[in-house]
Amino acid sequence: MRQARVRAIIGWAHLYFLFTFRWWLTVPQSFSEEGFRTLRALPVWGLDWLPRFPQTGVTVLLQLLVLFECWCAVLCLKEKTAPLALRLLWISLLGKLYFYALDLRQFTTFHHIHLLMVVVLLVATHRLSYLRGTLVVVYLCAGLAKWNPSWLEVAYFRSVGGGLPIFGESSTALLMASRGVVALELVGPLLWFSPNRQLRNLSLGLFLLFHLYSGLIVGFHFTLLMLPALLILLAPFSDPVRLPLRERKDKIAATVLLVAFLSGLSPLLLSEDVRFTARGRYFSTSNMVDANRWIQFEASFSKEGKRYLLRCLRPYPKSGLYNAPTYVMLSLNRKPFRHLSEDFVWQGNVVISPEFFQNTHVRTLGDPYLFLYATRMICERLQPDSLDVRLKMALNGSQQPRTVWELQDVCRKTVKFTPWGGIHR
């Protein structure tokens, strides 16, 4: 039974790599040389030097990785070839990390969790035990990260037009559901250590229902990751979770989980409101640390006697969590704004791309680093006479926007960004 579980979890890891590479095949520009030049990608901080393939090469490489993952998944069907599939996870891991580093807009919770679980699977001696421990860390971090007004005061969901499936717009129902999730994520994993099998299975059943429901709200990428992992690793939950520390590799796995847990606490350790900065989710496996956002970015710059005003506006969704367009508009010499439907090019260089903003998930769109990178591209590729920028944001239905940052004549200053320190002037 144990060997069958190990083979199943190795196969699950390869299949999620397959899904990932297949998803990324739809956005090859995010990883290609052409995408980098035309602002279809947001390089991870400090990693814009990483080599990129032409877009055709990216497509071919991702297709080869998809076929590779199919082969690896087949290897897991037989006990004799499963160890090879396990070793081949190193290739899958390196491939995913390479593409992951090419576009910060791909950073999502489910990819973080998948990568963490693959690392634990590769380094631990007692693999099943430490993968169960990984789930404990993931849920505890998710529960702790929800200690913010968006969740505890249900501000996030109250601002959603039409409410939530099943719960509707009832304040009482939303409050109970929101706080119930926090309680489940903080208490549920601790029950897995209990000698009482009924408590362990009750917790498991609630988590399965939670992931099925959450898929209706945020999509099934996360559900597709967590449901198989829970079923393979825990059902029928005949024994409580234990984390042995006798083997050297198990100690390495325990260290990895400790680092992941401390990283998951980052939303609580930062002094500012992480919903405005996005810094709290860079290294965290928590799921919902941000909020329903209204965003406005403005860049005022001059070049050769002409004055431009760029405005990027993302209003609150009229319904649902993500159903809102991102408007990219440009005004010349104080004339009315017009929608920017194609790239703003200067001497053959793409200076502003509307797709850079419009094809970005709302969580990354709320990240100040994205707008700082856009500012840097204007400085480097246009070399304007002057450039002033301002980022404003409002949360959860508030009509009182807050200025996140405002920079004057930014091209003449040294402005740097680090994921742990934010903007340095």
Beta-strand fraction estimate: 5-15%
Give the helix level as a range of percent. 40-55%
Mean pLDDT: 91
Shape: globular
Q: Whole-Å distance between the termini?
A: 58 Å
- In angstroms, what is the radius of gyration? 23 Å
Q: What is the succession of H and E elements?
A: HHHHHHHHHHHHHHEEEEEEHHHEEEE
Structural class: alpha+beta
> Numbering strands along the chain, what is their spatial order in the largest sheet?
4-3-2-1-7-8
Largest sheet: 6 strands, antiparallel
Relevant terms:
425 residues, alpha+beta, 3 domains, six-stranded antiparallel sheet, two-stranded antiparallel ribbon, 17 helices, 10 strands, 51% helix
Structure description:
This protein has 425 residues and is of the alpha+beta class. It folds into 3 domains: 1-106, no CATH class; 107-291, no CATH class; 293-424, no CATH class. The protein has helices spanning 2-24, 33-37, 55-75, 82-102, 109-123, 127-145, 149-152, 155-158, 171-191, 197-218, 221-233, 248-264, 266-269, 274-277, 354-358, 362-365, 368-382, and strands at 293-303, 306-314, 327-332, 338-339, 344-346, 349-352, 386-395, 402-407, 416-418, 422-424. Strands 4-3-2-1-7-8 form a 6-stranded antiparallel sheet. The chain is globular. The mean pLDDT is 91.
